[in-house]
Amino acid sequence: VRRLKLGMVGGGEGAFIGGVHRMAARLDGHWDLVAGNFQSDPDKSIAFGKSMGLAPDRAYADFRTMAASEAKRADRIDAVSIVTPNSTHHAIAREFLTAGIPVICDKPMTTTLRHAQDLADLAAQTGLPFILTHNYSGYAMARQARAMVEAGELGAIRIVQVEYAQDWLATDQPGNKQADWRGDPSRAGPGGALGDIATHAFQLAEFVTGLKTESLAGDLTAFVPGRKVDDNVSLMLRFAGGAKGMLWASQVATGSGNGLKLRVFGDKGGIEWAQETPETLLFTQLGQQQRIIKRGGAGVSASSTHATRVPGGHPEGYLEGFAQIYTDAAELIRAHQDKRKPNTFAQLAPGIEDGVRGVAFIEAAIASSKANGAWTHIPA
Ligand SMILES: NC(=O)c1ccc[n+]([C@@H]2O[C@H](COP(=O)([O-])OP(=O)(O)OC[C@H]3O[C@@H](n4cnc5c(N)ncnc54)[C@H](O)[C@@H]3O)[C@@H](O)[C@H]2O)c1
After folding, report:
1. Is pLDDT above 80 for 338?
2. How far apart are CA 118 and CA 313, in angstroms?
3. pTM for the complete prediction?
4. Is 34 within 8 Å of 55 (Cβ atoms)?
5. Which among 83, 134, 184, 197 is the best mutation to test ligand 1's pocket, defined by most ligand atoms within 8 Å of the CB?
């Protein structure tokens, strides 16, 4: 199978997630990075691209030149990854979609619902694949959990409890490049922890349960004095069909690293999965002992096996989960190029709808919190 050619916007010197995307794209051998505009400073972007071994004419000074030049090439990129601060996603994604190039974008997709809907319209018009890197839905055991809910092993879902706790913003972080833009609403958008990590928790809860959250009631707080965006998010959730839930996300939860954890309780059984112990899923059938289901173990779902690389007992985790999204993206893009249906596993990859819902979720949570926790409909 021909490798696909990847371009990247963002992810330059000292950046965080761009480097993770590059590792993830390499892991399963579907992608080669061939082009990029890695930083907003043109000279630094070109220098960084060359240092990554790119051809000099594909280390670009800005994303507009990159989209226009790539669109003209016979060996053009098959997709662009957008790994810049949130406020830039819309313009960059728009430029590449308009140039006919599929997009892999990090979350939150945009900073306004209007912009999210604009991208959804453009993706629909162009028919181009659009993948959103909600990477936690790429973990084998998150897919196992989804398969078990889908197979009815939990019965009717009653309760969904999800949390994402970090502590790296428990104090001001002057001089920290990542903290800097995240605390600035003009670059991060209106949400702090809400856009940064609550969106992951929200997407994971909907991914695993297959349920849509209809409305929420929220209380957002900025605990660190002077912070302009929330750093703690408490929400109650109402799902279509009657399930109830709670979502807590915090970047000031002392002692927490990346504590993303999901519990789902149905009338026949319950499951629990945590990102920091991703190889196992706890499953209890009503009236039975709790069982530990292991990645790669007996009886796991086909979707979980598909997202598995090495035998159980050899730990997989963050990079493999992220790589799964790139592998799914490769299948979606090849299927688009070959005018065929993608395999069913790749269809699990988060896309433009997750992007729109994520931004609608942010806007609803902010509106609810401003209205003293009033129940607020999620408008998309
Ligand atoms: N999926 C995840 O788990 C995850 C984790 C972290 C970050 N993210 C998302 O990834 C994005 C980037 O976050 P980060 O922590 O890597 O940020 P970062 O500050 O570490 O990196 C951003 C990079 O984008 C570059 N950049 C900024 N504006 C640009 C422009 N106009 N053109 C080209 N390059 C530009 C910067 O120079 C920098 O290299 C954000 O949207 C964030 O929410 C997702």
Report:
1. yes
2. 45
3. 0.98
4. yes
5. 83
